[in-house]
Amino acid sequence: MQFKFNVLVGAAIAMVAGGASAQELVVKIGHVGPTSGAIAHLGKDNENGARMAIDELNAKGVTIGGKKAKFELLAEDDAADPKQGTAAAQKLVDSKVSGVIGHLNSGTSIPASKIYSDAGIPQISPSATNPKFTRNGYKTTFRVVADDVHLGGTLGRYAVKELKGKSIAVVDDRTAYGQGVAEEFAKAVKASGGSIVDSQFTTDKATDFTAILTAIKSKKPDIVFFGGMDAVAGPMLRQMKQLGINAKMMGGDGICSGELPKLAAGAMGDGQVVCAEAGGVEGAQKAGMEKFKADFKKKFNADVQIYAPYVYDATMVMADAMVKAGSSDPAKYLPVLAKTNGYKGVTGTISFDEKGDIKNGALTLFTYKGEKREQIAVVR
């Protein structure tokens, strides 16, 4: 009898223990960015933004469909390479993630988006700005930043109307992002009555720009626009100074980082660089962004580079849709995610249109004084 009682008690304890663990829901969220290679500092910035959101969600004890959710971050490195990006995407699909935040670059985000679409897994990019990213008709593709039409167009108009650029040279790195933003910039320059005196291209791995800069110098431009990332823009600024090219450099969010002055190694004069970040907060929202930056610095002992707040918001928006849907099953929460409207994030208010683009996306124009990035204006 005693034996039978012990067995029953043991079974009851096992059932309670089993019930407790069954009440916890493990939610895997993937993140992909270049955490190796020339722009690893930007990839790590993104990954840390995701990590911050995941840690906060777990600390809050979020419940989804009556179960306590335990969020897990599955972080992958795509080295800003399209082939490695699709391999990382497939790995996350095979790992049965509920959603993916990423990728950082347009050149990796676009090919990866098909893999996520085929698997029915939602993908929110915090930083891919090429218009094609959301133009393939995939229901799983979203972004929380304005696209290159807005980004390049705003910079092109600013170059002519505010900086009074008369002769402008354009260089791009032949990536989906660099080429896309450069083309939109050139279109807006021409539409605003400016003149493109030279167009050159390089690669995202190049370090020597003597040939293209020598060709540009002969055209005497007052502005050189570079479509690409800060790892290339920094050395280009150094070589512009060595060749005596006194033009301003303009660029998109790819060059608009805290790291650019270091990469330029003292070759930047005050106000010489004007760039735009695909996002922006104004007024009362600034306090929330400043708090985020301070919390980020405390947690990771590093300053925000560019996109960490957008990654954080993208992760939170995804989790919010799961909570509202009562499920982390992509098929169940995807329709709720697509209807996101008025989510208050640290980067501003997030609402998606029918393509998955952010509605009324802002841009922030910056310049540099010494080593510090300074805001010029927020434009919508």
From TrEMBL:
What PANTHER family has UniProt attached to this entry? Answer: AMINO ACID BINDING PROTEIN (PTHR47151:SF2), LEU/ILE/VAL-BINDING ABC TRANSPORTER SUBUNIT (PTHR47151)
Q: Kindly give the SUPFAM superfamilies that the UniProt entry links to this protein.
A: Periplasmic binding protein-like I
Q: What is this protein called?
A: Leucine-, isoleucine-, valine-, threonine-, and alanine-binding protein
Span of domain Leucine-binding protein: 27-369
Family in the record: Belongs to the leucine-binding protein family.
Q: Transport as a keyword?
A: yes
What Gene3D superfamilies does UniProt report for this protein, alphabetically?
A: 3.40.50.2300
